[in-house]
Design the sequence.
């Protein structure tokens, strides 16, 4: 906007403002109505959905699934879109940072005088696309259950299978028919990685995967079962 | 302006201290008007019953006098406050400023976000009375809140779902200001403050998720902090700051607690203050499809 356009805007605005109503009581009444609705919605959700509390946190990992609150699904599920492990940081850090900077700088690169959404198609389309993308990722995240079962036949590896199923791997990885697709698929890890490499990854993983070092320390047998089972997947 | 100020003794009341009848400030103008209306009413009704001016007649309990005092006290209190703070022109300016023609329900989303924040603050204070941020105690104290305290589970539920509602409202408010082009001149700064508020609100969600110390929240937080650690330059430092070291320890929980209930809410409250200051100063936008029809007519008249 050049100075001329700025002045025009301010003039137009002061006229529109002059034609308007007083903040009190007109706007205050609407705001108050909305506050009441907000309160009622919160109370209704509380009564209908309660406040569940899962099992107590346990650093030695049994039966957890590292799932964020639903309003972070759209960030979490970016990992599902960006597949190769080398590019994980693009999904975890890169894209969110870029989006945030774009959002912050918006008023400094979109400076045209037009405000009507129908007359600035690029901005409006970009906004709708962003909302659609976030909604899509959120729905993906909501639909991905947190299965704790592995339906592969595991010959002589029942303990390992149980340990793996209860350690939250499936929150992010797919094994056979079960699990999510946020991290790399593990159905045939045994063919890709030797045992030691699998154990090393479990203890010292690349972000964002949590480390299983605690499990190794406190329940080495269970940890070993898990490694054996994973190494047998070929 | 309904602050509970103690009434001032009559002797101390600056009786003729109403400078410039009505023109100086709102408190006085309104006060005068109200006073007169209430002076009249009891007078007429009593007049019909007693047939005389009631005020100076009996020294005992006098309804008219009580009524008069009931009106005088808040006015007096407001005047008292105003005389010392000079705040009433400000309040008047805030309340009786005009909002543009066409202001609709979409414009309530910002204040609804603020309302949700206030609700979070109130329920949060009650939770803080019983919550204990030690790894061996956190989960137990949440269980106690849920199962033993009167309305404990209700307050916890309100805090939990209030967070969801606040997040939805903040995104809706942002969408409104985006599609209405409200981030453009002269409101750029308010958009920037808004984006910071958005990040802080999301950070509230993140730090709060760990506090009940259940499996879900714990591991989600481990993953979230791992993601932080993988960031360039600042990443590892930020992660160490959040964890209070290179590992998840007892410090981590109390650190998240301090961040969640002191640091970020303080920042949010301060920034909402700045946000609203700018809203009041610049005024809210008119809906973008409205044009000032009278513009040309007016300028012609003026010329
Ligand atoms: C804690 C969060 C927030 C609170 C309490 C809040 C509160 C408010 C309120 C009460 C208004 C007055 C007009 C209205 O309600 O629409 C407003 C206006 C505004 N807000 Fe927010 N807001 C918040 C977050 C945001 C965010 C995340 C953004 C955008 C990134 C934003 C951008 C704006 C802008 C540009 C205006 C001016 C709108 C206009 O003049 O029409 N705010 N805010």
Sequence:
């Amino acid at each position: 906007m050049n100075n001329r356009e700025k002045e025009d805007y301010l003039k137009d605005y002061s006229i529109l403002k002059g034609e308007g109503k007083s903040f009190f009581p007109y706007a205050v009444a609407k705001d108050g109505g909305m506050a009441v609705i907000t309160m009622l919605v919160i109370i209704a959700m509380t009564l209908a959905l309660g406040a569940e509390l899962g099992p107590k946190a346990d650093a030695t990992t049994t039966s957890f699934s590292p799932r964020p609150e639903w309003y972070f699904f759209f960030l979490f599920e970016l990992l599902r879109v960006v597949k190769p492990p080398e590019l994980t940081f693009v999904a975890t850090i890169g894209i969110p940072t870029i989006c945030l900077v774009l959002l912050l700088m918006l008023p400094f690169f979109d400076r045209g005088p037009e405000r009507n959404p129908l007359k600035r198609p690029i901005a409006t389309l970009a906004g709708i696309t962003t909302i659609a993308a976030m909604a899509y990722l959120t729905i993906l995240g909501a639909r991905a259950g947190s299965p704790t079962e592995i339906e592969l036949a595991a010959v002589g590896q029942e303990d390992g299978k149980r340990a793996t199923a209860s350690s939250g791997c499936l929150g992010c990885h797919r094994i056979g028919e079960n699990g999510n697709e946020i991290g790399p698929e593990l159905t045939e890890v045994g063919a890709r990685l030797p045992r030691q490499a699998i154990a090393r990854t479990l203890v010292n993983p690349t972000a964002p995967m949590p480390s299983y070092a605690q499990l190794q320390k406190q329940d080495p047998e269970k940890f070993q079962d898990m490694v054996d089972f994973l190494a047998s997947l070929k | 302006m309904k602050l509970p100020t103690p009434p001032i003794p009559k002797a101390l009341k600056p009786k003729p201290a109403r400078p410039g009848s009505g023109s100086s400030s709102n408190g006085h103008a309104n006060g005068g008007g109200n006073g007169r209306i209430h002076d009249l009413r009891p007078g007429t009704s009593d007049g019909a019953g007693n047939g005389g001016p009631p005020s100076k007649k009996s020294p005992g309990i006098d309804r008219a006098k009580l009524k008069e005092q009931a009106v005088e006290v808040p006015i007096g209190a407001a005047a008292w406050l105003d005389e010392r703070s000079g705040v009433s022109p400000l309040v008047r300016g805030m309340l009786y400023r005009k909002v543009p023609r066409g202001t609709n329900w979409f414009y309530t989303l910002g204040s609804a976000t603020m309302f949700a924040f206030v609700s979070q603050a109130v329920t949060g204070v009650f939770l803080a009375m019983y919550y204990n941020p030690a790894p061996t105690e956190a989960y137990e104290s949440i269980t106690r809140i849920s199962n033993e305290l009167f309305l404990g589970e209700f307050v916890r539920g309100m805090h939990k779902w209030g967070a969801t509602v606040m997040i939805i409202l903040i995104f809706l408010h942002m969408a409104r200001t985006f599609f209405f082009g409200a981030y453009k001149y002269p409101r750029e700064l308010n958009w920037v403050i808004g984006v910071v508020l958005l990040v802080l609100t999301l950070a509230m969600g993140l730090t709060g998720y760990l506090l009940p110390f259940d499996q879900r929240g714990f591991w989600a937080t481990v993953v979230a902090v791992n993601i932080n650690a993988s960031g360039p330059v600042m990443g590892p430092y930020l992660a160490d700051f959040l964890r209070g070291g290179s590992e998840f320890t007892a410090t981590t929980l109390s650190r998240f607690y301090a961040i969640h209930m002191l640091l970020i809410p303080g920042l949010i409250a301060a920034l909402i203050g700045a946000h609203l200051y700018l809203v009041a100063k610049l005024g809210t936008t008119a809906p973008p499809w409205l044009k000032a029809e009278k513009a040309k007519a007016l300028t012609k008249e003026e010329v």
Remarks:
- The radius of gyration of chain B is 27 Å.
- Residues 61-96 of chain B form one domain.
- Chain B has two domains: 61-96, 105-294.
- Chain B touches chain A through 89 residues (CB under 8 Å).
